Amino acid sequence: MKRHLFYTFLSIFVVTTIITLLGVIGVLRISQGHLTMLLSAFLVELAGALVALFRRTEFFAEDEHTREIMALKKSYETYMGELEQKYRDLVEQSAQEHSYSPDLSWPGTAIKNADPQVRVCYHCLLIKHVPLPLIWDPDNKRWGCSGCHTQLNKLE
Ligand SMILES: [Zn+2]
Question: Taking CA atoms, which of 14, 45, 69, 114 is between 20 and 30 Å from 143?
Fold first, then answer.
């Protein structure tokens, strides 16, 4: 429907323009009153077409593209910043999850900071960097390291 309207108005415009211009140069005999009306209509149509053309043309499209690129760059930087922060948080979280503190109430052992129920041999943790769990020796009724077999009795 829009297309039909467009072509209808375009046809009227073209026909009016041809008749008007032929009248102006004297090829067609048109009375002065009608010629003035046709010329006015032509000028109004021409002005309308120019206004419509100017409204549709993006003279500042480049500025808009630059703005879009800058907005994209900014969102990319924000995203990368968030990603970097998440990575740092994960590293710190991982470090905390896998860190141990020596337990002064039970010499030779360390407890996991994230889970105090987990007790390991502090010697093996320091020397071998391996958190080895303590094992209970039921025959001698004492605790020992599962790696270096050091006796680790709790202080009474
Ligand atoms: Zn050990």
Answer: 114
Cβ count within 10 A of residue 106 = 17
Both structure tokens of 132 = 């080895």
In a domain? residue 153 = no
138 is a domain residue: yes
Regions of the chain with pLDDT less than 70: 155-156
Give pLDDT, residue 156.
64
Count up the domains in the chain and report the number.
3
The answer to whether residue 150 sits within a structural domain is: no
Interval between CA 50 and ligand 1 midpoint (Å): 89
Distance CA 147, CA 149 (A): 6
What spacing in Å lies between the alpha carbon of 98 and ligand 1's midpoint? Answer: 17
The amino acid at 80: M
CB atoms within 10 A of CB 118: 14
Model confidence over 109-119: pLDDT tens digits? 999 988 899 99
